[in-house]
Design a protein that fits this description.
Elements (H helix, E strand, L loop, with lengths): L19 E5 L4 H4 L2 H9 L4 E7 L7 H4 L3 H19 L6 E6 L6 H14 L4 E5 L6 H13 L7 E5 L14 E4 L4 H8 L3 E2 L4 E2 L1 H5 L1 H8 L3 E5 L3
Parallel strand pairs: 1-2, 1-4, 2-3, 4-5
Antiparallel strand pairs: 5-9, 6-9, 7-8
Helix pairs in contact: 4-7, 5-6
């Protein structure tokens, strides 16, 4: 079951020049790390855009599914699109960049982030922290940190729950809570197993502990530049 890479117009509706853009390294990071924040931005009436940066092919969970690489990547996209819908993000505001998972160099991360900061210099930009233990997450954080002077400065760097209490050279964290339980519905999408529909519960297979942490907390935590 193919998934069409979402390359619809990146323009926002007339009168919207400051969307909130969440730059997500892998399918499930929008839920595990940023879920309550995405839900809150939607509830506040912000024009929320979610960009999935990689194609997810490098996940170790593929061995559990037996899927070929392209089919596995497409299945991860389906989970991501369903989770975004559960969080309340309109379908036309979700994009797949599809860089190759495991090959997100600092230069490529900067190119992806720069595309969006260039389109919407007055927008708000959200991604993972540059201190994240995963190199793809850290690369996006470093790219946004370096490009922040080209924007209006509304940038936030999110820390995944299992690193909230890890000592790291980063600014102090601020918490924001979900106004409801959409983030839980997004978690559920990563546990759906329906092979006929191309759903294989990959997120839950991949990082069950991370989903347990997300379900236990309605909070996202982030830091700024300083």
């Amino acid at each position: 079951m193919p998934v069409t890479v979402r390359t619809q117009s990146m323009a926002t509706p007339a009168g919207v020049d400051a969307p909130v853009v969440f730059l997500v390294p892998h399918a499930d990071d929008e839920t595990l790390t940023m879920g309550p924040a995405v839900e809150r931005a939607v509830a506040e009436g912000r024009h929320v855009v979610v960009v999935l940066v990689t194609d997810g092919r490098a996940s170790g969970a593929r061995a559990f599914t037996g899927l070929p690489v392209e089919e596995f990547s497409a299945a991860r996209d389906r989970e991501f699109l369903a989770a975004c819908a559960a969080l309340g993000v309109a379908e036309e505001q979700v994009f797949l960049a599809h860089t190759v998972d495991g090959a997100l160099t600092p230069g490529l991360a900067r190119a992806v982030v720069g595309t969006w900061t260039g389109l919407f210099p007055a927008g708000g930009f959200r991604t993972t922290t540059w201190t994240d233990a995963h190199r793809d997450h850290a690369a996006l954080g470093a790219a946004l940190r370096d490009l922040a002077p080209t924007t209006g400065g509304d940038v936030r760097f999110y820390v995944k729950p299992d690193e909230w209490d890890v000592a790291a050279p980063r600014p102090a964290l601020t918490g924001e809570r979900a106004p409801g339980t959409r983030y839980l519905a997004a978690c559920d999408e990563y546990a759906v197993v329906d092979p006929a529909a191309g759903r294989h519960g990959i997120g839950q297979l991949s990082v069950p502990g991370a989903f347990a942490l997300r379900r236990a907390s309605d909070e996202s935590r982030w830091h700024g530049l300083t």
